[in-house]
Amino acid sequence: MANQKAKMILEKDFKVSEIDNRIYGSFIEHLGRAVYGGIYEPGHSQADENGFRQDVIEMVKELQVPLVRYPGGNFVSGYNWEDGVGPVESRPRRLELAWRTTETNEMGTNEFMKWAQLVNADVNMAVNLGTRGIDAARNLVEYCNHPGGSYYSDLRISHGVKDPYNIKTWCLGNEMDGPWQIGHKTAAEYGRLAQEAAKVMKWVDPSIELVACGSSNRNMPTFADWEATVLDHTYDHVEFISLHQYYGNRDNEISNYLALSLEMDDFIKSVISIADYIKAKKRGKKNINLSFDEWNVWYHSNEQDKRIEPWSIAPPQLEDIYNFEDALLVGCMLITLLKHADRVKIACLAQLVNVIAPIMTEDNGPAWKQTIFYPYMHTSVFGRGISLNPIISSPKYDSKDFTDVPYLESTAVYNEEEETLTIFAVNRHLQEGLDLEVDIRNFEGYKVVEHIVLENDDIKQTNSAKGTPVAPHSNGNAKTENGGVTAVLPKLSWNVIRLEKRK
Ligand code: AHR
């Protein structure tokens, strides 16, 4: 069968924006085995003196995760942060209502901050605007960021942490539009509360950046009105509005499934429009940027989660085992985020360990990499610099819910300082390779140094603790010729074509 053909033009001056590294963020929630049994398992052969699993730390470092959202998620809407600081033996056990488990509070703010430092990540801290409000939020900012000489900063010092953490990015609650949320609110109720909490949190520390809750997903009945109302209240006090979206191949139709990143693209464009409408309404000067602080595939574990025994401690919840096609969609979603790097300044793959995660662990056993680990790692490691705006021509197809889906999903990142150019590409075609021709114009002297490919004959292939059959190889055939790049992108594949300037 003859391959399909696609073309791409890359030009140094066609820029979307400098990429904010926080776009490669992730998320750890007190949920399932993310914290207990995931990052923290005292007694495990790999545990350090803090009880942190070193094998997990090593994998998180491989991903070069720059930012981790914490402690939730739905969990944060019932969380008393004071339960998680001070002597561990005096911390209360609580009924955790979001996920119907028991929270021991063995890990809390200081333990998590220590772990984040070990993996070289900043923390995106969420405050509880479900059951609590302005007071608990401003006290937590004081505990974390004030140098000393006040009740909460001195409390932190008495807990053994002399220097403030200076946490920069904060979330004003979580999914407050969702009826499942503890303390669910209307847009007006939430907007007012978020406005006042934001104002006061910034009085404690004016250097922080704040994320107001947008909709829990694009299909929420209140979507769009929610964002407009919330931003109407909070425009002067926040820097970001959040987006959350999870996808699943519920109908088992891969062509349609892989096109879902087009919906994500549309969602992003809609939220930008709403943020700009409010800016116009306010005669504002600043743009509200987007924090896509929960995104991923999530559906494999839905049925088994219904069987979890209530009030157990760290049960295996949301343990999606990802297959090869999920890795392709995750690749398309990463490319979509990069295409909007001018407005999406934060994004968090939800989540990081065990819970809908790229990294899995077995209790007392090994850690292992899911299929989605690879596109996330490749973009995080090679996708730092300037997001370029490529001109792409690709053959297209129609699927159940989409028309004109390009077989080629692609973008490129230029790192001026390191003189590297990296093309990320997915071939959505089920049967045929894609002959790609890239015109690299004013990237004189740039040569292909590596063509990484993630491919597999079985789209349902998964990895496990026993082995990782879905893993990338570097045998792609991309080459530089006649001042351009040519490559064959195998059918259904994730590709990373790396170029470096050769003197
Ligand atoms: O990431 C899992 C859950 O998904 C989060 O707790 C919640 O915010 C979302 O609904």
TrEMBL record:
<dbReference type="InterPro" id="IPR010720">
    <property type="entry name" value="Alpha-L-AF_C"/>
</dbReference>
<feature type="domain" description="Alpha-L-arabinofuranosidase C-terminal">
    <location>
        <begin position="293"/>
        <end position="493"/>
    </location>
</feature>
<keyword id="KW-0119">Carbohydrate metabolism</keyword>
<comment type="similarity">
    <text>Belongs to the glycosyl hydrolase 51 family.</text>
</comment>
<dbReference type="InterPro" id="IPR013780">
    <property type="entry name" value="Glyco_hydro_b"/>
</dbReference>
<dbReference type="InterPro" id="IPR017853">
    <property type="entry name" value="GH"/>
</dbReference>
<comment type="pathway">
    <text>Glycan metabolism.</text>
</comment>
<dbReference type="Pfam" id="PF06964">
    <property type="entry name" value="Alpha-L-AF_C"/>
</dbReference>
<dbReference type="GO" id="GO:0046373">
    <property type="term" value="P:L-arabinose metabolic process"/>
</dbReference>
<dbReference type="GO" id="GO:0046556">
    <property type="term" value="F:alpha-L-arabinofuranosidase activity"/>
</dbReference>
<protein>
    <recommendedName>
        <fullName>non-reducing end alpha-L-arabinofuranosidase</fullName>
        <ecNumber>3.2.1.55</ecNumber>
    </recommendedName>
</protein>
<dbReference type="InterPro" id="IPR055235">
    <property type="entry name" value="ASD1_cat"/>
</dbReference>
<keyword id="KW-0378">Hydrolase</keyword>
<feature type="region of interest" description="Disordered">
    <location>
        <begin position="462"/>
        <end position="482"/>
    </location>
</feature>
<keyword id="KW-0326">Glycosidase</keyword>
<dbReference type="Pfam" id="PF22848">
    <property type="entry name" value="ASD1_dom"/>
</dbReference>
<comment type="subunit">
    <text>Homohexamer; trimer of dimers.</text>
</comment>
<dbReference type="GO" id="GO:0000272">
    <property type="term" value="P:polysaccharide catabolic process"/>
</dbReference>
